[in-house]
Design goal:
Elements lengths: L3 H8 L3 H8 L7 H13 L6 H8 L4 E6 L5 H16 L3 E6 L4 H13 L4 E4 L7 H7 L5 E4 L7 E5 L1 H14 L5 E5 L2 E2 L2 E2 L1 H12 L9 E3 L9 H13 L8 E4 L2 H13 L9 E3 L6 H4 L6 E3 L2 H18 L6 E4 L2 E3 L2 H9 L2
Parallel strand pairs: 1-2, 1-3, 3-4, 4-5, 5-13, 6-9, 6-10, 10-11
Antiparallel strand pairs: 7-8, 12-14
Helix pairs in contact: 1-2, 1-3, 2-3, 5-13, 8-9, 10-11
Pfam family, one: Peripla_BP_3
Organism: Halanaerobium salsuginis
Protein name: Transcriptional regulator, LacI family
Length: about 350
């Protein structure tokens, strides 16, 4: 088994530096920290975590509470966080709540009993009473993918992302634009729907309720099966007007919407343009490939973990919001409509 001395020799640093990195002490540059951790992995260095935990009163465990691990977007969030944890000598415990508040409570209690040093959280309801109680505990928490008034949060501007989608569709010549998804989430305004309405208003278009296909907000209600059923039910209603373009709440909703429209004889993008949100790995391989909003998942994982480590080391309790910018990824599900209908 490799020793700290061997790691120091390979990395070209002192043994003291290796010790500081492996034991989680501050005062080592990111460059040296990465170099030491890379060589520790290459040499298969085995840290006695029990001994280190007793020595430093640290568990080297981080809790990660996710609402829906089956969604590729959240799976990619997990991957990004896990990569950061490994780079910093931590392990993560993943809890999947399916946006169920009771399961979220149980996950938090379980993580606390396992003495995690901090929690990264995608809340089922960011205003829930148990989160206000958690705020009073001496446990660092960072909320990811949503904005929170209770905890530091790292998220993407969903309103702006939705506006980008609407502007893109309007630029293609669409004047009849619909929305597929919830108008509220956990009792709060849904930012993507608010962005949709704002984009319609900024484009001097009328908001037509006939073009809106509402789904329930939150899981398990907001599942891909639910979206398919709601779009199918919408299309069965003969007096409903059909838009020429639809913005779906996320990529999974867009995929199910495409399937439902095609079941009724509509071809995407020949007859209807459809766009999603998240830019999951599936959006590239779907046919047609999906126009969508990209969220900087790696940046979310990196920043959230970095902030959590700072809170762990400094015992900070301040709240702040880091707003990341979305970007538009244009693919065939909208562009082909433009080419075909010129």
């Amino acid at each position: 088994m490799a020793t700290m001395e061997e790691i120091a020799e390979k990395a070209g640093v002192s043994q003291a530096t290796v010790s500081r990195v492996i034991n989680g002490y501050q005062g080592v540059s990111e460059k040296k920290k990465k170099l030491v951790m890379d060589w520790a992995r290459k040499l298969d260095y085995q840290l006695n975590m029990t001994a280190q935990s007793l020595k430093n009163n640290k568990s080297y465990l981080i809790g990660l509470i996710i609402s829906d691990i089956s969604n590729p977007y959240f799976a990619e969030i997990v991957h990004a966080v896990e990569k950061e944890a490994t780079r910093n000598g931590y392990n993560i415990i993943i809890c999947n709540t399916e946006s169920n508040i009771q399961r979220e409570k149980e996950a938090i209690n379980s993580l606390r009993s396992r003495q995690v040093e901090g929690i990264l959280l995608v809340p089922a309801n960011k205003n829930a009473a148990h989160l206000r109680s958690l705020q009073q505990k001496n446990l660092p928490v960072v909320v990811i993918t949503q904005f929170s008034k209770l905890f530091t949060s790292v998220a993407v501007d969903h309103v702006k992302g939705s506006e980008l989608i609407i502007k893109h569709l309007v630029d293609l010549g669409h004047t009849k634009i619909g929305y597929i998804g919830p108008d509220k989430y956990s009792g709060c305004k849904e930012d993507k729907f608010e962005g949709f309405k704002k984009g319609i208003k900024n484009s001097n278009l009328n908001l037509d309720s006939d073009y809106i296909i509402k789904t329930a907000g939150g899981l398990p209600e907001l599942s891909s099966q639910d979206v398919f059923k709601k779009v199918t039910s919408f299309l069965k209603t003969s007096d409903k007007k059909i838009a020429t373009a639809y913005f779906a709440y996320n990529d999974l909703a867009a995929f199910e919407a495409i399937k439902a429209f095609e079941d009724f004889g509509y071809e995407v993008p020949l007859d209807i343009a459809i766009a999603g949100f998240d830019n999951t790995s599936l959006s590239k391989i779907n046919r047609p490939s999906l126009t969508t909003i990209s969220q900087p998942i790696k940046t979310i994982g990196h920043l959230a973990f970095e902030i959590l480590l700072e809170k762990i080391s400094k015992s900070e309790s301040d709240t702040e919001s880091i707003v990341l910018s979305p970007s538009l990824i244009i693919r065939d599900s909208t562009l082909m409509y433009e080419k075909i209908n010129k």
